[in-house]
Amino acid sequence: MTFPIRIVPRYRLLLRYDIHPDAMDTYYEFIMNEFIPALQSMGLYMAGVWHTAYGAYPNRQVEFIGDSREIFREVLQSERWEILETKLQTYTLHYERKLVRYRQDRFQF
To answer: Helix, strand or coil for residue 10?
Structure first.
């Protein structure tokens, strides 16, 4: 029997960007089949995806949580992350990345 993975989130990785209009289908295929599974296998778990329909903000914010700063350090310094992030950037515009302390009670930018 497999139980859900339980972690106590300490940090949140925020990825903000606009999806390149010509890359929608390949973006979704990459995110669902490669990016998310790879991060989960490295110990980071998707906590949310936000879409901005109006305003001067990137139209997508994707959030991953982890239970230690060390996990984020290992992931963000790995060659695998570098390859994944570079590939993600080919499908996006105005890409930004930010690591913040996890706060459960509020939306984080």
So the answer is: coil
Distances (CA, A) of 96 to 1, 6, 17, 18: 39, 28, 6, 10
- Domains of the chain, by residue range, sit at 11-101
Fold of the domain spanning 11-101:
Alpha-Beta Plaits (3.30.70)
pLDDT at 1 over 70: no
Q: What is the pTM of this model?
A: 0.87
Q: Please tell me the predicted confidence (pLDDT) of residue 51.
A: 85
The sign of the torsion formed by the CA atoms of 13, 17, 20, 25 equals: positive
DSSP symbols for 41-104: HTT-EEEEEEE--SSSS-SEEEEEEES-HHHHHHHHTSHHHHHHHHHHHHTEEEEEEEEEE--T
